[in-house]
Specification:
The protein is α/β, with parallel strands linked by helices. It contains 9 helices and 12 strands.
Length: 226
């Protein structure tokens, strides 16, 4: 997956670029709105800063959206509600306020791509296998343990789908809540513990959902070394 990163702040851009590369994303980095609109190489998603030196990032967002439906995540120091609303209304798929962590941006990218991924693409892929017992069919949103379908609630399925995107990786409670419940979730995270407990019971040890006290959870498949 290739990301177009539009950011004129070099330290911020370098941190994002390194993080994206570490997670397996390809990155094309430009520093101005004009350069962003001049890119001809294909890309799958845009990370767009609003505070660009040559033009307002909102105008760039509007121009990119007129060109097509590539997902756009705005990244900006403007945390004002008006900017957030305007950004979303003119076509951004999500809005991340600075300062932010790279893991948060990765979680937002994954959540956006899950929402926009074409049905045809989802249909082309079969179930994903995790160890010898667990199969997650993302096309049909179904889960099987030892070949038998497991009845999950929508949020239980979303939680498992998120954790299985990167087995062995530690996900913070905040990242999980933002990705699975809502990008702007500010409530208590007790509901997460309830859903994790339900998944552990229903998956019957097919995989392990390991809690890291005070941080979050990781999904461990047999043979994984966290």
């Amino acid at each position: 997956m290739r990301v177009l990163l539009v950011e004129d702040d070099e330290p911020v851009a370098e941190s994002l670029r390194r993080g994206l590369l570490r997670y397996g994303f390809g990155v094309e980095w430009v520093t101005t709105g004009g350069a962003a609109l001049a890119v001809t190489a294909p890309y799958d998603l845009v990370l767009l800063d609003l505070g660009l030196p040559d033009t307002d990032g909102l105008d760039v967002c509007r121009a990119l959206r007129r060109r097509g439906d590539v997902p756009i995540i705005v990244i900006s120091a403007r945390s004002d509600e008006t900017d957030r609303v305007v950004g979303l209304e003119i076509g951004a798929d999500d809005y991340v306020s600075k300062p932010f962590g790279v893991r948060e941006v990765i979680a937002r990218i994954r959540a956006v791509m899950r929402r926009v991924q074409p049905k045809e693409q989802r249909a082309a892929s079969g179930p994903d296998l995790y160890g010898e017992r667990l199969a997650v069919d993302r096309k049909a949103a179904r889960v099987r343990v030892d070949g038998v379908e497991v009845a999950l609630t929508p949020k239980e399925y979303d939680l498992l789908a998120f954790l299985t995107e990167e087995p062995g990786a530690l996900m913070s409670r905040e990242q999980i809540m933002e990705a699975v419940w809502d990008a702007n979730w500010f409530g208590p995270t007790k509901t997460l513990d309830v859903h994790v407990a339900a998944l552990r019971r229903k998956l019957a040890g097919a995989v392990v959902i390991e809690a890291v006290r005070g941080v979050g959870f990781r999904l461990v498949v047999g043979g994984d070394t966290p």
